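hi got a favour to ask and not much time before my train. below you get a single protein, a line of residues and a line of whole numbers that encode the local backbone shape. could you go over both lines and see whether the tokens make sense for that sequence. a few lines back from you is plenty, here it is:
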Amino acid sequence: MRRMFHAKYTRIGNNSPALIKAVKIDLTRHVASTLDALQDETRYALDRELGTWKVAEGDEEDEFDDQQGSFVSWVMKWTDVKNRENPSTLAENQVTLSFAAIYTTTMASTHAIFDLISHPEFIAPLREEIDQVTAEDGYEIDGSGKKNLKKQSFAKLKKLDSFLKESQRFSPSGLISNLRLTTAPLLLSTGHTIPAGVRIGYNLYQVNNTDPRVSPISNLSSTAPSLDSPSSFSPFRWSSLRSVPGNESKYQFVTTSKEAMNFGHGSHACPGRFFASAEIKVVLVELLTNWDIRLVGDEMGTGGERPANFVLDATIGANPRAEVELRRRKV
């Protein structure tokens, strides 16, 4: 699992020892004071899940029921039988998948924030959409009196969805997508053969920045909107495409296709993209609704140069040194 994770998702394996060492130093510096509590909590969680599994072991229908709502139990469903009671294996799988989910979601959220504050002219239309949707649907009020978006509202935030898709097009998680290992010789239509045991992938940057990827208009009606150049950040290009009859469910942030591979494609496309999409939208809705946000020093609110991404090997990350200013809105 760890080798697969490093190779296919983070791309920061053995060829980046400096980064791994930096993470290790930072973790070990602070872990001593919390290690006992973490071990107790982990032991409690694993004992509970293993106990649930043993009780359900004789009932195939109930085994690893997704309704248990525990990520550990979901992973156990796909763990080799001999390792299902191995706490080390379960912990490694949990940490590996948590890192993959938390890091990518954090980066996508940060990229979107940087795109928003460097193009503040798009803040008003996004706020208008949020206000319109919440006026129609209302909120869910939890036990503490806090207002939460209703599930049905997420699908109606088409401009926000489009904004996130465009942000991801410019700042994906990496330069390469759909990394795979050939298990047998692969004959291409060109006549070339890729041997078994070769790692292959798609040039995601090229896919994201070519006209067929950004202007899929061949099957659209004559009323389809014209599109900007692929090099232009046009956050509502996708919501405009979805306004064409027949396209209502296409070109979404979570959509995967041969032209949209930021989440992968096919049977191994990112299974968590739907949850991640909702999670990122919650962050953006909170910021847009309750906060004014800008680049440091942007007193006129006109935006400015977007904080540059960093690229490590084939991994793309948000600028960790960039600074933003926030102030609670006076509504």
Observations:
- The two ends are 49 Å apart (CA to CA).
